[in-house]
Every structure is written in C-alpha cells, then in structure tokens.
Amino acid sequence: MTDSQAPARSPAFEFDYIADPGVLADWHARYWELKEQAPPVFWTGAHGGHWVCNTGSSVQHVLRHPEIFSSRYLSIPPNPNQPKMIPEMLDPPEHRPYRQMLRPFFESKAIAPLEERIIEWTDQLLSEVADAGECEFVSTLASRLPVAVFMELFGFPMEKFDEFRHLVVSFFNARATPEERNALAQQIIGHLAQLIQARMAEPRDDMISKIIASDVDGRRMSFEELMSIGFLMFLAGLDTVTNAMSFGMRHLAHDPALRQRAIDDPDTIPHLVEELLRRYAFVATPRYVVEDVELEGARLRAGDSILAPLPLVGWDEALNPDPETVSIERQFYRHAAFGSGIHTCLGLHLARMELIIFYRAWFRRIGHFRQVDKGDESCRGGSVMALENLHLAWDA
Ligand code: HEM
C-alpha cells in the first residue's frame, strides 16, 4: 500500500504522528498519554493508515526482526521514489557489508582525536553567549555545535561553516515548505558532491577520504553510494544531537537539584546524559511489514507500515522502575534512544561525547539557568522530534 488509504484494521485509535496537536505542544507528554490510553499495538487512519507500537516490548520486537519489519522506505506513508540512504534503508543481507565498512570510523578510539576540537568549539560557542545572560538555545548553541563537529569529522572546509550552518538550520526548520526543503537538500547535495569529487581526486587525512578508499564486498564504492552515505550522515548526525541537547536542557531548566549535582560533581555528567536520553528519547522510526505477522494482539499484514516510538523502551516499567522520574541514581539506564538491532546508531559514541562535553562546559561556565516564557516552545512532530525554540536565562 503506497499512496492510497489502507483498509482499516483493529484495534484502532486515532493518532497523527506528524500533526497531532498534543505532539506539537509537547511530544513526550502526548506519547506518555498514549502509552496510558491506547492499545499495545494500534491502527490509525492517519497518513494512509498505519500501525503504532505502544509498548517497549513491541518496539524492541520490531527493531530486532528486520526480516519482517523492513527499513526499505523509512517513511509513512512509504515513498518508493525516495533515494536510498545507505546503510539505514538497507535490509539484511545488503546492510551488513556497508555497516562493517563504516563501523571502524565511529569506534571510540577512532573519534577520540575529535575530543579536543569539540571542547574548543563548545568553549567558543559558549563565550559568544555567556555574558548576555540569555539566549535562544536552539539557534545559538544546540544547532551550531553538531554542525561544527560534522564538518570537522567529515572533512568539510571550516571556512564554509557559516554558509553550511545556515543551510542546515533552514533545512531542518519545521516551517520550511517541501519545495524549500527540496531546494535546500539540492544545495547540501551540491556541497557534498563537490567535497567527494575533490577527495576522490586528491585524498586527505579525513573521514571522507578514508571512506572513499574503503572496500565493500571487495570493491570500491560508486559516487552514488558515497553520496548516499554522506547525505545520511548529514541527516542522522546533525538534527539529532541538537534535539538531545534541547530536550535535555529544557528538563534541567526545571530541575535545580539535578543542576546542582552537575555543578558540584561533573563526574556524574555521563549518567545525566544517559538518563536524559532515556527519558527524552525523540525518534519514532517507521518500518514496512513484509509478511503477515501477529504483534501483541494485532494482526499485521504484508504491505502495512508501523511506527516504532523509541522512548517507549526507556519508559517500560519492567526495564526502568519509576520511568517518569529523571534520576541519576539508577543502576542501569535501559533505553533505545539510539535504536536497537542491526541499525543501532553508528554515531552513538560521538553523540555521547558531544553531549558530555557540552554539559561539562555549560555547568562549569554558566551553572544554574532558567527557562523564560515556558510554554512558548513548540515541538516538531514526525519521526525525529525537535524543540523549535527554547529561551534560557541565567545570572551573567
Ligand atoms: C543524540 C544523537 C543521536 C541519536 C538519538 C541517534 C539516533 C539514531 C537512531 C534511533 C538510529 C536507528 C534508526 C532506525 O533504526 O531506523 C540511528 C541510526 C544511525 N545513526 Fe544516529 N543518532 C544520533 C547521532 C548520530 C550521529 C552524531 C551520527 C554520525 C555522524 C549518527 C549516524 C547514524 C547512522 C549512520 C545510522 C544508521 C545505522 C545503520 O543503519 O546501520 N547518528 N541513529
């Protein structure tokens, strides 16, 4: 079923994962409400009709069975014309050789040399706002740091930072029309193509040159494959870190005891990062059902789509007692903010490193802060949730 309406299935519960007013007001609060009110796996008529997982166990089952729940479209409704993102939109067995090729570039020891640079970038960005005593956090900090890191990691010339950042921020802006976003995507693709062509002609000591020189199944990759990998990195690694920072800071603005812990004992910050990811995971990933299957009382048919909201895993009482509370005293932080199974985020070490460095620098330099105009911020719905703005203030 692609663009037409699928026949209704049961149990049904009306929910629009992109435009539900509750989602737009407060994504996490709305999904929490659904968890309490809707069936474990339910059908909604929105967006051509699709299933929604509403328990941590159903989300994990879907992610761990790629032979039944395919990533071939990664959109609801499925869009067969969408360009393939490698490796995220590949199923087994095609997925594995690309993943194996990419994995070494994202291991802890491979990204360790970036640490110093991330610290420098963070300090520089904080210097630009610290004395003002206030900022719109998403545009001044959260959307900037990941762009700098991505450019540095991938090998983009840093003199293009402002131009590239502008493109990125406009691309992820929820208010961009599909035409505007398409035009921006073309510009980003243009930058990527230029970079890949330059490094194919003259390799340097950067990640993109090393990817170009890597083999997949005993052969070099084509220009199209390299572009697909590059564009996925862009989509996967920029907006996500921004959102993790924004949702995390919004919580901290209202949790003085946790802020005090981070100020007094910076060694707790890795726990803080993990707990905030658990409580405020923000991806709901789509899958395409390739064979008839039963899932927690629902009968799914081949050709159906299903949405797997990842926060539900961290909100599962059986995995994390008292899941609503944010606490850094947990023995384990069990969550699926980075996914689960074969597509588990390749950038998770890098993302954690960025977040830890950021919170350390913030609490050392700025300390306590508060949210101004609470309720003014709004969420972007869809499969990667975002806070569109977050006004913070502190005593400078
Ligand atoms: C807090 C930040 C991040 C979060 C929450 C996050 C989350 C995720 C999730 C949930 C998936 C799996 C999606 C699915 O199963 O459909 C994923 C995949 C992926 N992520 Fe991340 N991500 C983050 C940062 C990054 C960064 C910084 C990079 C790299 C620069 C990155 C690169 C990737 C790649 C390449 C994949 C595809 C892996 C595969 O298909 O095998 N991510 N990410």
Describe the protein.
This protein is 47% helix and 11% strand. It is an alpha+beta fold. The longest helix has 24 residues, at 178-201. It is globular and about 55 Å long. The mean pLDDT is 93. Protoporphyrin IX containing FE binds at residues 71, 87-88, 99, 232-233, 236-237, 240-241, 244, 283, 285, 310, 337-339, 343, 345-347, 350-351.
Q: What does the main sheet amount to?
A: 5 strands, mixed
Radius of gyration: 21 Å
DSSP E strands, number: 14
Strand order of the largest sheet: 1-2-10-7-3
Give the SSE map:
Elements (H helix, E strand, L loop, with lengths): L20 H5 L1 H11 L3 E4 L5 E4 L2 H8 L5 E2 L24 H12 L1 H4 L2 H17 L3 E3 H6 L2 H10 L6 H12 L5 H24 L5 H6 L2 E2 L2 E2 L2 H15 L1 H15 L2 H9 L4 H11 L4 E6 L3 E3 L2 E3 L4 E5 L1 H4 L33 H18 L4 E2 L7 E2 L5 E2 L3 E3 L3
Parallel strand pairs: 2-10
Antiparallel strand pairs: 1-2, 3-7, 4-14, 5-6, 7-10, 8-9, 11-14, 12-13
Helix pairs in contact: 6-8, 6-17, 9-10, 10-12, 15-17
The protein binds protoporphyrin IX containing FE.
Provide keyphrases for this structure.
single chain, 396 residues, alpha+beta, Cytochrome p450, five-stranded mixed β-sheet, 17 helices, 14 strands, 47% helix, 11% strand, globular, binds protoporphyrin IX containing FE
